[in-house]
């Protein structure tokens, strides 16, 4: 019998073909390419075709998919230094293929897969040095932050998931440079965006614990309930790490939940940057994106909590279609999502194949690339750097040409010129009203040569943009 959606006798051929495509892509990613592939007119035509109603050849269409991928911005490439990239770790991609083929749902007890997820959470906690008793994999830092803050809301106002806020005025505290996902969580949890207190930052752009304490105390005096403080362990703009220990000193005596948004930076707590993260063992919850600085493909974040009951208080429920076996919690009793892909597998397999030390070494290499970029740019007359060296792996630089009438516009145009040029992909950032180029090193494929090339390309294209000077 031929099933309508089977690949039939082409199945093995298709798999072998796809495997060859992946092998070619990996080889291509080993070194940066000097020119990006154009989106050809033929490809644009194919991407405008109407819904196919009949079958197409699988090999032809795999090749078409390959053409699309090849003409797309791929974060896996070694000179993708924009935003906070992920790198499509090879063994992680293999794990994804396997996980998606079995299509296990981690909403319920999936037997061995559920145990693996627990083990991966426990390994992640050990890796980071956080005494978690529970956690789950999520689709990203946004959901990890939302999950941690939902648990914090229920702790601060028990029963609020049933009753709502009942007129209570509540607040969340985060540095002025926290990621927008914290504000979004406040919007979605009924706290309200206007109740996210923007705590001031110091000259290194870290949260000021004295301002935090003053804001919490003023709110409590005014009858406002603090829900949580969110410390950023690596801000998105400059990679600043808030002083977690000093923030815990503010939170603990006041009984306020401390969540660490470590989506980007937390894996660096396992390297020479560890002192920046002192106090992590004292927090209530944290989020970390394995799809950023642990290199596995998107989407793979995790939220870890000190106490399991904090997650179950916020998420446990009874529904006729998901009965409980005795006291056993289902995965959906400690997490936000229902259909949950087997995200843990890629991190678990990667840790088994490479070992934690290899991850530390790769993160350390990125930190060294950031320091090199800062040193080289600081030594050059045609670049401006920030007053302090990078805390993590984001290194804002500004191309400066003597007499240039508008340095911000120049750097904005330079950034776009670099993206068009294709040798290096960087994104812009506006810091204190000034436009900067913002290279960010989170890719295990990036080399020190790529750091030098980035500066050379920026200097070359920058000089071409402002030839009159
Ligand atoms: C500090 C920080 N928190 C949260 C997020 C959101 O993470 P995601 O895009 O995985 O949802 C980001 C994304 O860059 C981030 O940098």
Multimer state: single chain
Classified in CATH, the superfamily of the largest domain is Type I PLP-dependent aspartate aminotransferase-like (Major domain)
Tell me the structural class: alpha/beta
CATH second-level architecture of the largest domain: 3-Layer(aba) Sandwich
Rg, please? 24 Å
Q: How many individual domains?
A: 3
Bound molecules: pyridoxal-5'-phosphate
Order of helices and strands: HHHHHEHHEHEHEHEEHEHHHEEHEEH
The low-confidence parts are none
Mean pLDDT: 96
What's the CATH class label of the largest domain?
Alpha Beta
Strand content: 5-15%
Describe the strand arrangement of the main beta sheet, using strand numbers: 1-7-6-5-4-2-3
CATH level 3 topology of the largest domain: Aspartate Aminotransferase, domain 2
Distance between the termini: 74 Å
Count of DSSP H/I helices: 16
Helix content: 40-55%
Structure summary, number of beta strands: 11
Task: Please give a structural write-up.
With 469 residues, the chain is an alpha/beta fold. It folds into 3 domains: 12-72; 95-354, 3-Layer(aba) Sandwich (Aspartate Aminotransferase, domain 2); 357-465, Aspartate Aminotransferase, domain 1 (Alpha-Beta Complex). It contains 16 helices and 11 strands. It has helices at residues 11-30, 41-46, 58-70, 90-102, 112-128, 141-156, 160-163, 180-188, 209-221, 244-254, 290-293, 308-315, 344-354, 356-379, 407-421, 448-465, and strands at residues 134-138, 170-175, 196-199, 225-232, 257-262, 285-289, 301-305, 383-385, 397-399, 428-431, 434-437. β4, α10 (244-254) and β5 form a beta-alpha-beta unit. The longest helix has 24 residues, at 356-379. The radius of gyration is 24 Å and the shape is globular. The model has no long low-confidence stretch (mean pLDDT 96). The structure holds pyridoxal-5'-phosphate. Residues 84, 140-142, 179, 181, 232, 236, 261, 263-264, 289, 301 line the site of pyridoxal-5'-phosphate (PLP).
């Amino acid at each position: 019998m031929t099933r309508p959606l089977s690949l039939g006798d082409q199945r093995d051929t298709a798999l072998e073909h796809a495997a060859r495509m992946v092998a070619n892509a990996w080889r291509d990613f080993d070194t940066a390419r000097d020119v990006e592939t154009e989106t050809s007119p033929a490809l644009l035509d194919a991407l405008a075709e109407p819904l196919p109603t009949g079958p197409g050849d699988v090999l032809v269409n795999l090749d078409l998919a390959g053409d699309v991928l090849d003409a797309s911005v791929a974060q896996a490439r070694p000179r993708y230094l924009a935003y906070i990239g992920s790198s499509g770790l090879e063994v992680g991609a293999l794990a994804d293929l396997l996980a998606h083929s079995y299509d296990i749902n981690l909403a319920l007890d999936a037997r061995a897969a559920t145990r693996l997820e627990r083990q991966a959470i426990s390994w992640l906690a050990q890796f980071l040095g956080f005494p978690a008793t529970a956690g789950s994999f999520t689709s990203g830092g946004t959901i990890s932050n939302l999950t941690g803050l939902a648990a914090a809301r229920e702790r601060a106002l028990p029963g609020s998931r049933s009753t709502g806020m009942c007129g209570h005025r509540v607040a969340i505290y985060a540095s002025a440079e926290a990621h927008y996902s914290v504000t979004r969580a406040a919007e979605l949890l009924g706290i309200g965006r206007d109740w996210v207190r923007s705590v001031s930052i110091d000259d290194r752009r870290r949260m000021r614990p004295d301002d935090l304490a003053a804001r919490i105390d003023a709110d409590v005096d005014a009858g406002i309930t603090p829900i949580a403080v969110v410390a950023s362990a690596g801000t998105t703009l400059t990679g600043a790490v808030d002083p977690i220990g000093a923030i815990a000193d503010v939170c603990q005596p006041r009984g306020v939940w401390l969540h660490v948004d470590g989506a980007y930076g937390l894996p660096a707590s396992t390297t020479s940057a560890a002192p920046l993260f002192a106090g992590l063992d004292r927090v209530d919850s944290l989020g970390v994106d394995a799809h950023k600085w642990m290199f596995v493909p998107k989407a793979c974040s995790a939220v870890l909590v000190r106490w399991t009951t904090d997650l179950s208080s916020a998420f446990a429920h009874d529904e006729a279609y998901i009965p409980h076996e005795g006291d056993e919690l289902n995965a959906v009793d400690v997490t936000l999502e229902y259909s949950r892909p087997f995200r843990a597998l890629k991190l678990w397999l990667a840790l088994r194949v490479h070992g934690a030390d290899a991850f530390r070494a790769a993160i350390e290499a990125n930190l060294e690339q950031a320091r090199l970029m800062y040193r080289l740019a600081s030594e050059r007359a045609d670049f401006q750097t920030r007053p302090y060296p990078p805390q993590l792996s984001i290194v804002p630089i500004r191309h400066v040409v003597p007499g240039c009438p508008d340095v911000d516009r120049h750097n904005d145009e330079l950034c776009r010129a670099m993206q068009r040029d294709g040798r290096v992909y960087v994104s812009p950032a506006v810091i204190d009203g000034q436009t900067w180029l913002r290279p960010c090193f989170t890719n295990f494929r990036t080399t020190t040569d790529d750091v030098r090339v980035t500066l050379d390309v920026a200097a070359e294209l920058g000089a071409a943009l402002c030839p009159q000077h």
